[in-house]
Amino acid sequence: MPNITKEDFKQDLQELVDIENQKQMNLAVLFENSLANSKEIRLTEFKDRLYIQANYYNTLEKYQIEIDDLVTQYKKQLDKLFDVCRTRYINIQRELAAAIQSEIIVVTNISINKQNLEKAIGENDAKKIHYYTNKINASIQKKLNYETIVNECNSRLEACIDQINDFAEKIKIYENVNVAKKEKNRILEFFNKLIKNLNRKKNFQNYVLKPSENYIECLTDEVDKSIGNLYNQIFEFAVQMKDNKDKINMAFNAMMQG
Predict the structure, then answer these.
(1) Helix 210-256 vs helix 126-170: angle between axes, to the nearest 10 degrees?
(2) Which terminus, N or C, of the chain has the lesser number of Cβ atoms within 10 Å?
(3) Minimal CA–CA distance to 82: which of 140, 38, 133, 148?
């Protein structure tokens, strides 16, 4: 059997790390694109809705400041929500990176200990044979346990992307834009236009500004609730990961004493 040096192990380890890093980078790009697209779609949707109605009521110039303020408030809520989504994703990603690193180290140690076991067998050293056999078996189980963490983290990262889409759907505006259809009857169209011009400021305030302000108020409450749930998920995940790692170490030590 050819002699494998520490440098060989370092090179193999780095290659494995690079492969895993590329996988996580691809998933991170998918997450960031999903997040950015969801924000852009909803913000554009909200802004266009206001501009369409402002143009309909011929009030865009008069209420430009109010419209911009509503858009800013809406964007603020989106930023709040999606920033916490990103925080959750990053925390999971860090745990995943740590688990992958630990898994790779364990695999490397298994290879080293297999060589040590072969050497002990050649020397007919019963004590070392027992020690390295236990260590290999314990390390194999440790590797499997870390693999469970890796799979759990990957599932949660994919769930984060789905969660972004769920939030984007949840904050979607479903109200019908209050733009009247063009009437075929020219006389009726004339009177409608006259009434609209006479009441355009009042109508824009009652049918656009106030409902939009109420919508943002409700959205703020919904975002705060969602953020609270996200922080609970972040905390519960951290506790779960610590518990898992403690159990892995306890199981390894127990097997080493066998």
Answers:
(1) 170
(2) N
(3) 38
> For 62-114, what is each residue's pLDDT tens digit?
889 999 999 999 999 999 999 999 999 999 999 999 999 898 889 889 988 99
Q: How confident is the model over 186-191, as a mean pLDDT?
A: 52
For residue 187, being part of any structural domain is answered with yes
Give the model confidence (pLDDT) of 223-250 as tens digits.
999 999 999 999 999 999 999 999 999 9
Distance, in Å, from the CA atom of 172 to the CA atom of 45, rounded to the nearest integer, reads 8
Among 148, 151, 119, smallest CA distance to 132 is for: 119
Q: What is the residue range of 120's domain? A: 6-256
| Cα distance between residue 124 and residue 170, in whole Å | 68
Separation between Cα atoms, residue 99 and residue 109, nearest integer Å: 15
Evaluate whether residue 130 is within a structural domain: yes
Left (φ > 0), alpha (ψ -120 to 50) or beta: where does 176 sit?
beta
Q: What is the DSSP letter of 174?
A: -
Q: In this predicted model, what pLDDT tens digit does every residue of 134-177 receive, in sequence order?
A: 999 999 999 999 999 999 999 999 999 999 989 888 887 655 44
pTM: 0.81
In a domain, 1, yes or no: no
- By the 8 A CB rule, do 174 and 45 touch? no
Residue 214: which of 65, 60, 8, 74 has the closest Cα?
Answer: 74
Q: How many domains does the chain have?
A: 1
